[in-house]
Design goal:
This protein is of the alpha/beta class. The chain has a single domain, classed as 3-Layer(aba) Sandwich (Rossmann fold), CATH 3.40.50.300. The chain contains nine helices and five strands; from the N terminus they run βαβαααβαβαααβα. The longest helix has 18 residues. The model has no long low-confidence stretch (mean pLDDT 90).
Length: 188
């Protein structure tokens, strides 16, 4: 299965992805982690991406698409993957569809982790990640609301969206994610 996990910054995508990787037995493709690794390694891609990330802006599509394309072509992605952080915009969703279509593949389902803004801020303050500060975090949430939220309608029209409540314990949320996957699989 090729699954996309969507949610605002701090929604718990990373936590749920770790569990889903074991459950689905597919690799986790986190563009955020790919970008942070490139920045840490000091690669040309990483240095270019660092400028955008430091300002809370989305990294340009060609840069992201290059990372995702390389990763999707790896042997371990042949039977599926879990996409986290891509696509983030409607143009990226169209690029992903084209990329998968060329390989006779498609997105099988999209799971949205819905979390209220006040809870997102609380989680951000608690996790203390190096790229989190209140000003940048607020920009990332605003960017999600403007650029990524339209993806929900895009995938809903395709019958591929399952929106779940992202509040509760990690176990409670994961049970909702598994149930959403069962529904998506049954309905496809």
């Amino acid at each position: 299965m090729r699954i996309i996990l969507i949610g605002p910054p701090g929604a718990g995508k990373g936590t749920q992805c770790q569990r889903l990787v074991d459950y689905l037995r597919v690799p986790h493709l986190s563009t955020g982690e790919m970008l942070r690794a490139a920045v840490r390694a000091g690669t040309a891609e990483g240095l270019a991406a660092a400028h955008f990330m430091a300002q809370g802006q989305l990294v340009p599509d060609p840069m992201i698409l290059g990372l995702v394309t390389k990763r999707l072509e790896a042997a371990d992605c042949r039977d599926g993957c879990l996409l986290d952080g891509f696509p983030r915009t409607l143009p990226q969703a169209a690029m992903l569809d084209d990329l998968l279509d060329c390989r006779a593949m498609s997105v099988d389902g999209v799971i949205e982790l819905a979390v209220p803004r006040d809870e997102l801020v609380h989680r951000m303050l608690a996790r203390k990640r190096e790229d989190d500060n209140p000003e940048i975090f607020a920009k990332r949430i605003a960017s999600f609301e403007v650029q990524t939220a339209p993806l929900l309608d895009y995938y809903k029209r395709q019958g591929k969206l399952a929106s779940i409540d992202g509040l509760g314990t990690a176990d409670e949320i994961f049970n909702r994610v598994r149930e959403a996957l069962r529904r998506l699989k049954r309905d496809s």
